[in-house]
Design a protein that fits this description.
This protein is of the alpha/beta class. 33% of the residues lie in helices and 22% in strands. The strands form 3 sheets. Strands 2, 3, 4, 5, 10, 14, 15 and 16 form an 8-stranded mixed sheet that branches. Strands 1, 6, 7, 8 and 9 form a 5-stranded antiparallel sheet that branches. Helix 4 crosses helix 5 and helix 7 runs parallel beside helix 9.
Length: 380
């Protein structure tokens, strides 16, 4: 089948071609999780694999969104206190970062941790982002390495900021009391600028992890890949512990809710969202490859995945509580006003402080400093 010209950008046109062929190969219907994986990670074409600028503080820079390390260097400097404690507890000198973005967080951690870190490994699927990270981290080239797959054994401290939300999700929709899985089909557009991608729902045996009260129509996500990632991390930690006696700890920061909030009856439109030029929209089928696609994290599901895989859930709290517990505020007393203002965004409720959460796992039970006050593990 000939694919119509849908974009002036060759990479985006190639992505549409790949998606159309994938839909055709799948029998005409592609589950949303498979579509999302292509839209974000198809080599050289997907959003996180192409050369578009993604991270920045303003749309004028051509960026689409800002993350905490770009917002304020005090994010990484403060997280470093927790990482340092975890390195001491695990008796390791290795840090792993998943999805390192611009490299800003890695730079902040390396500058603050100094000789406590002998090796810093970045796991990132994006070649274009890797090049940007290498430039940002050139002063630490002797410590930093990049991999695109995990080894069979893993020890040390893992950090991941806004990683889980970018993992592909399946969409479930209840219509007239019947659950369907929402997927994507190809429909050659008849109007200029119209997307060739359309939604199509199929009856499914899949269900959300909890029953959603009511009979009203309801759209939500399930996070099979994020939970599988936690299982894989646990397996690698445990393999290292068994072979060498060295285990590890992981700290994951992201936006989301515990299960009872995630599947609340009033959250009937789900959490799926796209980001482009610092604006958000709910339509992932438009301008594919040129914008981020994301879903909030079900932290109960993540916690249960870690627990089921044999890890200890070390804590769960808001980003505000976590950073304050780790010592964010005292250094800001003498900081310039502009620095204080940006750091404040990390903890204020209407900015990042409450929506973003932190969850931690470990091969051994201990109480990390980030959860000393305000731990919400009981709410999971």
């Amino acid at each position: 089948m000939t694919i119509p010209q849908l974009s002036n950008d060759p990479g985006q046109q190639a992505l549409y071609t790949l998606i159309q062929r994938s839909i055709d190969k799948a029998g005409g219907w592609l589950g949303f999780d498979r579509f999302m994986a292509l839209a974000l990670y198809a080599p050289g074409m997907g959003y996180y694999a192409n050369a578009l600028r993604k991270f920045g503080t303003t749309p004028q820079s051509g960026s689409d969104f800002v993350t905490a390390p770009e917002l304020s260097p005090w994010f990484g400097r403060t997280l470093a206190h927790q990482v340092s404690e975890a390195l001491n507890v695990t008796q390791t000198d290795v840090v792993w970062e998943f999805g390192a973005g611009s490299g800003a967080l890695a730079l902040q951690l390396l500058e603050t941790l100094g000789d406590a870190v002998k090796r810093y490994t970045i796991v990132d699927l994006s070649g274009s982002l890797r090049a940007r990270q290498q430039e940002t981290l050139k002063a630490y080239a002797h410590k930093v390495q990049w991999v695109d797959a995990l080894p069979d054994q893993l020890h040390g401290v893992v950090v991941g900021n806004e990683v889980l939300d970018a993992m592909p999700v399946q969409l479930l929709v209840r219509k007239a009391g019947v659950w369907h899985e929402r997927g994507v089909v190809w429909h050659t557009p008849t109007e200029a600028g119209a997307s060739p991608l359309q939604w199509q729902d199929r009856v499914t045996d899949l269900r959300p992890p909890v029953e959603v009260e009511g009979t009203h129509d309801y759209l939500t996500e399930i996070h099979v890949q994020a939970e599988a990632f936690i299982h894989t991390l646990a397996d690698r930690f445990k393999a290292s512990l068994a072979a060498t006696g060295q285990g590890g700890a992981a700290f994951l920061l992201d936006y989301g809710f515990p299960e009872h909030e995630y599947f609340h009856p009033q959250r009937h439109m789900g959490t799926l969202m796209c980001h482009q030029l610092h604006k958000s929209d709910p339509d992932p089928l438009q301008d594919v490859g040129a914008k981020d696609i994301t879903a909030h994290v079900n932290f109960t599901g993540v916690a249960l995945a870690g627990q089921d895989a044999g890890l200890e859930v070390l804590g769960y709290t808001s980003q505000a509580h976590f950073l304050i517990n780790c010592g964010l505020l005292p250094p800001l007393v003498d900081a310039p006003l502009a620095e204080k203002a940006m750091a404040q965004k990390l903890i204020t409720e209407h900015e990042m402080g409450e929506l973003f959460k932190v969850i931690a796992f470990g091969t051994h039970a201990w109480e990390p400093m980030g959860f000393a006050q305000g731990d919400r593990s009981h709410t999971l």
